[in-house]
Amino acid sequence: MYKSRSFAASGILPWGTFVAGLVLCGCEKSDQITTYTVPKHDSLQSTAYLEQQERQHPQPKRMIGIIIPRESLQWFFKLEGNVAAVAARENDVREFLKSLRFSSPEVLEWTLPSGWKQTPGNDLRYATILLDGAESLEMSVTKLPTRPELPVAEQVAANVNRWRNQLSLPPIQEEDLDHQTEKLHFNDLVAYWVNLVGRSRPKPASMTPPMGSSSNNSDDRSTAPAQRRSEAEAQKTSPNDKTEPAAPVFERPAEWTEAPATMFAKVSLQAFEGDAKVGITVTPARGDPLANVNRWRGQVQQEPLTPEGLASAAKPVEVGKLTGNLYEMTNGTRTILGVIVEDRGQTWFVKLDGNSALAERERPRFVAFLKSLQLE
Predict the structure, then answer these.
(1) Does the predicted model carry a pTM greater than 0.90?
(2) How is domain 257-372 classified at the CATH fold level?
(3) Which pairs count as long-range contacts for 208-212, CB under 8 Å and 24+ apart, including other chains?
């Protein structure tokens, strides 16, 4: 015999009553509806959107650059784009270069591989070569006057640094060319082959390429013909630099003499003992200290440092009223005493480089020179 049981007495409510209670409770406060605007697929792929993303989060890029010094002109070929896509065309570009020939001092000709196309040049570009394949790649061809008062190697280094700057890479020095570039010989030409990987420097959102130009190589067409400077001069004043640093003030040791001017250094001095020589330079530049110290170490065949190793290797040194870090590198025959110092947002590199025995003799004079150095 079953006994009846009161739900109220047991504290258990009927299911209908429970649901009704939930409904009543839910009605006490109206639900708030939030709306979202989600970009359509088409808008995510628009040119403006992709350019904005590239400015905010630049992707790694590979650049193949070729510099051909020729009498009164320098010729530049540049291919830039996706890292893997550009690397895959390296052999094709090398084969293409073998077809280059001059019909006159100012006219360069070539034979296009099957599938490649060429568009006419303009006032700012000699030609544009479109490569075949799934990836849309183009190679720019430009020519600019040489600077006869400067050595060829110095002008080549300046242009390599211009390209390195575009990919946020630290600059190199003229003596680095042998291991930072590959020298090619074909027909009667000599070419410097540059292969770089880095990230493009962010560009302002309002920046647009000149009419009729492609955004892939804006550095080759940034000014009108009458206003263009040589490729080497362009490295001296970057668009990102607000002002050009002034020449430092210093006391030159009587034993040191002026050295031939270089494109980058604000100060260029030298010291001799017989056939032995050391050079002393003061240069404003960009690049993080670790990359530059490791570049110096590579010049004397030393292994690169880690960030921890860099901190251990740094020795504080007086540079005028400032304090810099001195790094010493040697392989027994060549010594580099490199100083890195910051002054109001500008990085300076002071370097003594040359014969090890002479460098040791000149060390006290170098220290005195540093103390006298006023970076204005």
Answers:
(1) no
(2) Jelly Rolls (2.60.120)
(3) 210/124, 212/122
